[in-house]
Prior knowledge:
The complex is a heterodimer. Chain A is α/β, with parallel strands linked by helices. Chain A is built from 12 helices and 8 strands. Chain A has a single domain (3-256), classed as Metal-dependent hydrolases (TIM Barrel). In chain A, β4 (100-107), α6 (113-128) and β5 form a beta-alpha-beta unit. Chain A is globular and about 50 Å long. By secondary structure, chain B is an all-alpha fold. Chain B is built from 12 helices and no strands. Chain B has helices at 14-23, 31-43, 48-59, 72-82, 88-100, 104-113, 124-132, 136-142, 152-165, 175-178, 181-196, 203-209. In chain B, α2 (31-43) runs antiparallel to α3 (48-59), α3 (48-59) runs antiparallel to α4 and α7 runs antiparallel to α8 (136-142). The longest helix of chain B is centred in the last third of the chain and has 16 residues, at 181-196. Chain B starts with 13 loop residues before the first helix and ends in a 10-residue tail after the last helix. The interface between A and B is medium-sized, with 27 and 25 residues.
Amino acid sequence: MRIFDPHIHMTSRTTDDYRRMSAAGVQAVVEPAFWLGQPRTNVGSFTDYFDALLGWEPYRASLYGIRHHCTLALNPKEANDPRCRGVLDVLPRYLEKDGVVAVGEIGYDSMTREEDEAFAAQLALAIAHSLPALVHTPHRDKAGGTRRTLAVVAESGIDPGRVLVDHLNEVTVELAVDAGCWVGFSVYPDTKMTPERTVALLRRYGTERMLVNSAADWGNSDPLLTLVTGQAMLAAGFSEADIDQVLWHNPVAFFAQSGRLALDGIEEPGADFAGNSVRRGGI
Amino acid sequence: MTAPIEKAWPEPDAGQRALDLRAAFAGLPCEPWLDEAADTIWRRSEALTGLFAAAARHCGRQQLAAAPGWTADEAARTILLSALELPEETLIAHVEEVYVYGDAAEKRAVLRALPLLPVGDRAVPLLHDAIRTNDPRLLAAAVGPYARRLDAALWRQAVLKCVFTGVPLDAVHALRERADTQLMELLEGYALERRAAGRDVPADAAALLQGLGTEEGGA
Ligand SMILES: [Zn+2]
């Protein structure tokens, strides 16, 4: 089973996770820029974070034969802090980088006026930089938040076929399907979706435009739940081709719309040098 | 590039080497893009940021057959930086900007371009930054010809870090000429620790210690 995890925050994970993911068949990941748990208070904290997503993290992934891309954005939670608003001014520079395959994750947290502005501005940036958009749906007031999210997406003029709406569930999936967007399910140990519930929705809505991710981060999450979901699909009677579509082809097709997805030669480790500090534990 | 090249080059043959890099693109599909990009930057230096970031998408990342040791993206980015016909203090501001805001491949390209740019000692802090990272791609590019401007203590630490992180020592410019007693002492200490732990000493480091050394590299 080859796996493309289209939403995982590797910055918060250890090299042990990379090793286990690689052994489980994860060959490519997309890491969306997000909130780090501790609020940031200045633009420089973001640019250093973006640098890590464009430099150190892809290198770390390459040591385990995993191809790493990212999506960049000012997340909604921190869009509410005026000290972080300047991130919107530096984003255009970063959205031109090779490793950036979408603008994201954007959307709502508390549905404030500041979040409205940042969300609309960043959908406009996606259009201006010819990038797709990764839009998450809020944790609280999910159905109302998803409706409002999709209204803003429609208003922005971005092609819904270039929008991936994430963290969907039984209550919200149909809204995203009807809007013509791509659908993301985040499979978590105890919140969001479980493998079994995800399989039930795949049965009901089919495998087209459906993506499964672990959304693993610094919270209680598990980077191997993509594999577990694939196994649950198999047990439920889905074919290998169906599983490959959901766990590989769909994320590839969605992010390839950026024109920047580079998956050549991912079977070989990406590092140019025989040795490396992470494996040796050096320095 | 249409701009005339009349600069106080920092290296005796730097101007020639920049022209050689440009010639290596002759007949390649990206040649028109590169010409136009360099011309745009020569006319309007603010265009550098976007074109520098986009260079690998237009020129590719493969080895350049006509410029051994150079990939197309690094050579193209070097040509784009060479198109800036600016006084040293203005030029360095642009070089620093694309480095600071660059991804790993852009940072590496800046480091490789430094010996070909008339920036004097002003870019030494960029080498310090690259050597502080743990990214072997950046470290290897930081110990190239421009590293002659590093002070001896930091240069020795950079060489030692290459050995630690698995960067082949043939990436180090003028290694044999510059290797001194203090570097040998550092390497001997490292070799002693490795052997005490039952581990191998990398062959290139062992060879250097034995006085065989490696030939000066191009990286
Ligand atoms: Zn996330």
